[in-house]
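REQUEST FORM: STRUCTURE PREDICTION
Request ID: SP-0412
Submitted by: Lab K.M.
Chain count: 1
Length (residues): 298
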Amino acid sequence: MVYHIPALLKESIEGLNIRPDGTYVDVTFGGGGHSMEILKRLKTGRLIAFDQDEDARSNVPSDGRLLFLDQNFRFLKNNLMFNNIRSVDGLIADLGVSFHQFDEPERGFTFRQDAPLDMRMNKSGQVTAADLLNKLEEKSLADMFYKFGELTNSRRIAEEIVAARIRRPLASVNDIVTAIGNLAPFRQEHKFYAKVFQALRIAVNHEIDYLKEMLVQALSVLNPGGRLVVITYHSLEDRLVKNFMKSGNFEGEEKKDFYGNIETPFRIINKKGTTPGDEEIAANKRSRSARLRIAEKI
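STATUS: Completed
RESULT:
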């Protein structure tokens, strides 16, 4: 079974503008697709790779230029400093869930197969999707589905979940699908459940908060001229990344100096972002929602 096929691989690696003697970071190692391509372009350079999923360790090659850290990327700066790395020349983040995580039923990431409602990227994490569904108050559930799934009927979804868990705790994928099945729009069931599961996954893994923490630290550790390369898969992530690259903050608010010049920490390399072409989507359907953004630190 293929662990993962990275989206926009060629474009993202070219976007890093790799120097053979540079220091680079892959904060989402996964199956190692991006890291392997970076290593091909390094001579005396170095690559530091992060991944909090213990399954990813089996993909790490034996290469003296590669330092693998089984850590969440929110601890980027501290881990680099611990290893005497003060600055880097480029950082890449592929924010998608790996094929391996989707295709292992026991991880509970997909609504297509029945499994325990887990969704933890880090298996040692304490809170699962089932915990959230069974313990959060109705308003908190509604807020989660609205904020992280962009579901306009989030209140109805929360109501149905609370009603279902009174009868018995929600423990499996089928439990949640059954509980809210009457709310799925006709012929758009897959899109509906995808948004529900996206919201749960983001909440379980604190994905938005941790992404913000990582981006701020990335700006701090990048050398001038260093590249920040991020692949997003939904509008919440993409909006944050776009705003941060544009203005250095997550609201996208442009600040001006005394003379009225816009102050920004980055030069945008691909202003509209890059999306997969028809050929890539045909070969890898899971790449269809990917968007690549590249910026260079000024």
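NOTES: The longest strand covers residues 222-232.
Reviewed by: T.R.
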